[in-house]
Write a structure and sequence with these properties.
Blueprint (H helix, E strand, L loop, with lengths): L23 E13 H4 L8 E12 L4 E4 L7 H6 L9 E3 L3 H7 L7 E5 L5 H4 L9 E3 L1 H9 L4 H6 L5 E3 L13 E3 L6 E5 L8 E6 L5 E6 L5 H5 L6 H7 L3 H12 L6 E4 L22
Parallel strand pairs: 3-5, 5-6, 6-7, 11-12
Antiparallel strand pairs: 1-2, 1-4, 2-3, 8-9, 9-10, 10-11
The protein binds zinc ion.
């Protein structure tokens, strides 16, 4: 079995960022679904069952707040059943992002949109109860309009304003093009279009300098980043539009792992240290 070798750590400077002092992030876990590790990353054991996280991240910022992905929505049962066999599995829903925002008295007027890492069901289901603009790019919109696994997106995005951002040819940590959401380097989206055409990695830098890379499905579990290890061949063929591009992006992400918290969307342990909304008033991470 051909394995990837660990790339050298990123040796360039870290990109400048001037996040405002009251910027913060919170995790909103909305549920999980079961996958066997041998499907999740090359070398994973069949007996090792993994709970795949479906978690939204709230990024607060004085200009406007965003969610990165939407987690499970109220219609999750229908969304799971819209999947082909290999993506359908037992799931547990623990409360939508919308419910969690409301139950903590969050001012919905602050929410500028949901910035999606990509349009797959397990990242966008929660848009069914979040009537805010969807922030995405032309490549992903085209993918979602045509792909079989864009069905849930096509349903939940109805009635939403689409905010289509453009990538500048501004390299960011090894990725060739990026988009600076607030213009201060605090939230930067980099194109990593291999899983789907317009998949992105969202880089977040907090006021105290802590950095995160929300990598969507570049890897499904942290083992994929730490190996680095690609998805197994069958899953690459089924799940990725361009497995070679995913490999390249995985190596880019792996080179950053010592410099920031890398968060594969579906790894429950990758969210450790990010506070929940409940603790917002007392212990924001900054
Ligand atoms: Zn996913």
């Amino acid at each position: 079995m051909k394995t990837l070798s660990m790339p050298p750590a990123w040796h360039g400077p870290l990109p400048g960022a001037t996040p405002p002092p009251d910027m913060a992030i919170y995790q909103l876990p909305t549920g999980s679904y079961v996958t066997r590790a041998n499907f999740a990353f090359k070398g994973g054991a069949f007996r090792d069952k993994r709970s795949f996280a479906a978690t939204a991240i709230l990024v607060t910022h004085p200009k406007r707040d965003f969610l990165i992905d939407a987690g499970f929505g109220a219609d999750i049962s229908a969304h799971v059943h819209a999947q082909p066999w290999y993506a359908r599995s037992a799931y547990q829903a623990t409360g939508t992002a919308s419910e969690q925002l409301d139950s903590h008295g969050y001012d919905r007027g602050r929410l500028g949109g949901v910035l999606i890492t990509h349009s797959h069901w397990d990242h966008v289901s929660g848009l069914d109860r979040l009537q805010v603009p969807i922030w995405t790019n032309a490549g992903e919109l085209q993918y979602a309009a045509e792909a079989r696994d864009g069905k849930v997106f096509r349903t939940v995005s109805q009635g939403h304003q689409i905010h289509q951002y453009e990538f500048a040819s501004a390299p960011y940590l090894g990725f060739p093009s990026s988009y600076d959401v607030h213009g201060d380097g605090s939230v930067v989206v980099a194109l990593a279009g291999g899983h789907t055409t317009g998949s992105v990695v969202v880089f977040v830098t907090l006021p105290a300098g802590k950095r995160y890379a929300f990598i969507g499905d570049v890897a499904w579990q942290l083992e994929g980043v730490r190996g680095p290890a690609e998805r197994p061949l069958m899953m690459r063929k089924l799940a990725d539009v361009d497995p070679g591009q995913v490999r390249q992006d995985l190596l880019r992400v792996a080179s950053l792992a010592g410099l920031m918290q890398v968060v594969p969307a579906h790894d429950l342990t990758a969210y450790e240290g990010i506070p929940r909304l409940a603790s917002r008033a007392t212990s924001p991470v900054s």
